[in-house]
Amino acid sequence: NNLCTWTMRCLLIEQGEQKILIDTGIGSKQDAKFMSHFEPHGEASLHGSLHHQRLSPEDITDVIITHLHFDHVGGAVSKTEDGLLVPTFPNARYVMSKREYDYWNALYATNPENPHRAAFEDSVKPIMRAERAVLVEDTFDFDTGIWLEPCIGHTPGQVVLNVASGGKAGVMTGDVIHHRIQ
Questions:
Q1: N or C: fewer beta carbons within 10 Å in the chain?
Q2: By the 8 A CB rule, do 157 and 100 touch?
Q3: Cβ(77)–Cβ(29) under 8 Å?
């Protein structure tokens, strides 16, 4: 269809009662015109994947947003039947970078015609209104071998997820390079 296919992989970490979701994909609240620009890869959805793990959105305790691009934060908010935008994971705290939030908030305030503004307004602002956001400025430790570190990279304030368990460690960056290298 002359479109780029998008694979938006989210990560779920379960530790006891804690269910931490890293990124939320593009979501499903967008209209047909918006979605006509993208070709999601495969049939899997975030809700379907959670259901496969016998989990519901209400089970998620924390949502980590690596950065505020629509393909990482779009699914953080859902549209109700009456058109209201509400956090998809009602019992979760949404952890994101304060620097990232401040950067995009200032950019869109000074440039309301920016084509990416709608993603911020529709995905981040409802989380803020619902008072579910935790804006981190420094290393944020979950006290379970999981911690976040803000950095400058793909975006001005993305967070990098670090996980250490059983003598092994891993890192999730969200995006490092936005497009493939030619």
A1: C
A2: yes
A3: yes
The mean-pLDDT minimum among 3-17, 48-62, 76-90 falls in 3-17
> Whole-prediction pTM value?
0.88
> How many CB atoms are located within 10 Å of the residue 102 CB?
14
Q: CA 56 to CA 151: how far, in whole Å?
A: 31
Amino acid at 60: I
Return the pLDDT at 33: 73
> Which tokens hold the place of 17?
């009662």
- Please state, in angstroms and rounded to a whole number, the distance separating the CA atoms of residues 71 and 46: 12
Mode of pairing for the β-strands spanning 62-64 and 39-40? unpaired
Q: What is the C-alpha separation between 74 and 65, in angstroms, rounded?
A: 10
The alpha carbons of the chain give a radius of gyration, in whole angstroms, of: 16
Write the single-letter amino acid at 63: V
For residue 168, the model assigns a pLDDT of: 94
Tokens standing for 71?
């393909």
- Give Cβ neighbours of residue 1 (< 8 Å, ≥ 6 apart): 39
Residue 146 has pLDDT above 70, yes or no: yes
| Cα separation, 4 vs 67, whole angstroms | 21
